[in-house]
Amino acid sequence: MIKREKAILALADGEVLEGRSFGASGLAAGEVVFHTGMTGYQEILTDPSYHGQVVTMTYTQIGNTGVNPEDMESRKVWVKGFVVKEYIETPSNFRSTVPLGEYLKEQGIVAIEGLDTRFLTRRLRDKGSVAGVIAAGDHDPAELVEMARNAPDIVGRDLVAEVTGDSPYTFEEGTWKLGQGHPVPDKPPRFNVVAMDFGIKTNILRMLVDAGCKVQVVPASTPAERILELSPDGLFLSNGPGDPEGVPYAFETVRQIMNKRPELPIFGICLGHQLLGLAMGCKTVKLKFGHHGANHPVKDLAAGAVAITSQNHNFAVPMDFFKRPDCPAELTHLNLNDDTCEGMKHKELPVFSVQYHPEASPGPRDAAPLFGEFVKLMEEGE
Fold first, then answer.
1. Do the Cβ atoms of 9 and 16 come closer than 8 Å?
2. I need a surface site. Which of 79, 81, 225, 357 has the fewest CB within 10 A?
3. Is the pTM of this model over 0.85?
4. 341 catalytic residue (yes or no)
């Protein structure tokens, strides 16, 4: 076994946990959260929604399947730091091209193994998410705690501007197939969808392509006039990191589009769901420790069915919003763990959203038919 450098995770509440480094040297600060998925660490690492966060995996062994270029959810790793119980340095998977630790070093990500992740998870669950610093090498724990206390809060920050693309592009590849990679569909697309990139996961784009859509991806700051000039049959609002109220230009754009083209179908996921709520007049709330995992039960209130879902968010549309007499939306989905809002739709317009991730990657595909619902709305508008 490789002898590893000492590493420390220091929390702003004064807790200090020691372990071993298996990523890059140096230190990194961010909001410490936990993820309950057993697999899919590569997709988690490259999900822009985790920008600004130190992610703790609750599953005990991480690294077994290595890393491969086909499962990237974006162009790079976005987490600030990575925490695991036990790092497996020798992957066993025919698709692996590089071990996880080597990949994290290449990406400049500080990572720690060997600490009690169960203790850390319970602490975060009971007391809430907290700022933390991961440091590889010899550092004064007291200084690291002070650094964690001075780390910037995610509340009110515009993290979207740091992850969105620089320019528009068209996306054409479908979901992964064994022996084919990510093939381009044989049939021409039926619908033109504009996707606002707030930190979009690639598998969302792939599933839209599989559903028969030509997808034009635009940066988060793209004005409403420019989006409408692209003559969309539907508008997609993507996932992304941080506080939705820190991105006022985004929900103002959505509000303008809803006013100018009320007949346009709109589908939002995660941050896109929250931004849609803000566009319709609500105020979002920060959750105690957020929802991060691949096993969250969500009930479809109309169908009475329960889906196991993949989730990653720290903010939510408040339930009080739907009790307001002037609320333009109705609640459609409910989280069965904590009774928070997981979905809504406009009472009059072809507009709907969910808080969870129907595209998975990682996680179950129970909610994948939602992309078909979006296509159905576009069909009805033909």
1. yes
2. 225
3. yes
4. no
